[in-house]
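Handout, section B. The chain below has 214 residues.
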Amino acid sequence: MNLFLLPLALVPQSAPVDIAKKALPKAAQCVVCSSEGEGHGLEKPAAGVRYKGREFFFCNAKEVGPFKKDPEAFMPPVLPRKAPELNLRALDGSALDLKGKVVLLDFWATWCKPCVAAMPSLSKLHTKLADRGFSVVGVSIDQDGLKKVKPFADKHRLPYPLALDSTKDPLWQKFGVRQIPAMFLVKDGQILMQWKGKVDEKVLEDAIRERLTK
């Protein structure tokens, strides 16, 4: 098929193209808010763009700039997909043996209040399912590393292991983390599910149980 004979609207753009205001729908979901785990349903869009044959809308015109700069960062994730190699070490320096386990990687920081608020639920899930081959692993992105995380760990005494992310070759970058908390369910070298922001404990547990060995 000759692409030059196709109507312009049917040709997937390699770069985002603005949608005229008069062509915006009465209601749509904001792609930026949804990608950040803050989807708030349908609303009147302030702006829109076409990208690779699809239309994306924004609740605030200021969101268009970040989207145009890196549109692929806002695309729905491909699942399952290959996970980056996990060479994590506990705070005492020992290697974490995660082979054969269903692992919930939780990227967090001591200064992130939503991250800390999620820890009781993660602790409960880890304790409940650890004997079935499951583990939560908290990967700290704190820039001060052990200096910040060790006192936090001593105070909270979490039942699951904490690890420090590398400053030279950050794991969070390999996983495409743009905000925290960010969680990834990993098994056999594959990312099976991922979440951003606040996640319901039952949603996590159902996803974990589905992947555990019977």
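Note. The first strand starts at residue 17 and ends at 18. Compare this with the example in section A.
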